[in-house]
Amino acid sequence: MTPQRDRVAKPYKGRFWSAKSYVLHTLADSKSTTMRDRVLRFMETGPCPVCGGSGLTPAALAVTFAGRTIAELNALPMSELAGIIRPTTELTAAGTASRKQTSGEGNEVAVAITRDLLQRVTVLLELGLGYLALGRSTPTLSPAKCSGCGSPPSSAPAFSG
Q1: What is the pLDDT confidence band of residue 88, given thresholds at 50, 70 and 90?
Q2: Per-residue pLDDT tens for 141-160?
Q3: Tell me, what DSSP letter sits at residue 127?
Q4: Are 119 and 157 in contact (CB under 8 A)?
Q5: How many distinct helices (H) and strands (E) make up the chain?
Q6: d(CA 103, CA 90)
Q7: Which residues contact 152 (CB under 8 A, 6 or more apart)?
Q8: I want to staple 94 with a disulfide (CB 3.0 to 4.6 A). Which of 25, 68, 108, 144 is the partner?
Q9: Residue ranges of the alpha helices (H) in 30-141?
Q10: What is d(CA 129, CA 134) in angstroms, rounded to the nearest whole number?
């Protein structure tokens, strides 16, 4: 018996869909409510157990400033954030940045970054937006608030980066 003769013909040339691909495709493209309801049984919604919904890696979450993670600072209203970073902006004898330091809040890089951030946050505070958090998504803002943010006063620093 030769291997050629024992082969089975495989006429099927379609695309294989994994269960995940099928569920995601059905949710995105199906117009049928019944099909959507059927695949929703296999979906689970909730925050990520690793990042808590922040979208940050464990390495990024390990970085702290004033005893808070980046995700915690991102969730604060800008008025509170300004109060937390203001002491660092006022440092006059900042040290040099070093990997051996346990905290980098008192180095020259942190002072420069917090001064720039405080200037930008101050503009938003002056616009009456101190209640907003940096992590708040744009679609949750009213059109009036968005138009106010799009045209800062000419004396304010540009919003970029």
Answers
A1: confident
A2: 676 655 655 544 444 444 44
A3: T
A4: yes
A5: 8, 2
A6: 17
A7: 123, 127, 158, 159
A8: 108
A9: 33-40, 58-61, 70-75, 78-89, 108-126
A10: 11
User: Is residue 114 a contact partner of residue 136, using CB atoms and an 8 Å limit?
Assistant: no
Residues paired with 77 in a beta bridge: 133
Name residue, tokens 């002056």: 126
What token pair was written down for 130?
């101190």
CA angle centred on 106, ends 122 and 65, rounded to 5°: 65
Measured between alpha carbons, how far apart are the two ends of the chain, in Å? 69
| Contacts (Cβ under 8 Å, ≥6 apart) of 7 | none
Could you give the domains of the chain? 17-44 (no CATH), 77-136 (1.20.1580.10)
Strands 64-65 and 68-69: antiparallel
Q: Which amino acid is at 118?
A: L
Q: How far apart are CA 21 and CA 7, in angstroms?
A: 30
Spatial distance between the Cα atoms of 56 and 64, rounded to a whole number of angstroms: 13
Give pLDDT tens digits for 122-139.
999 999 989 999 888 777
pTM of the model: 0.58
Residue pointed to by tokens 């006022």: 90
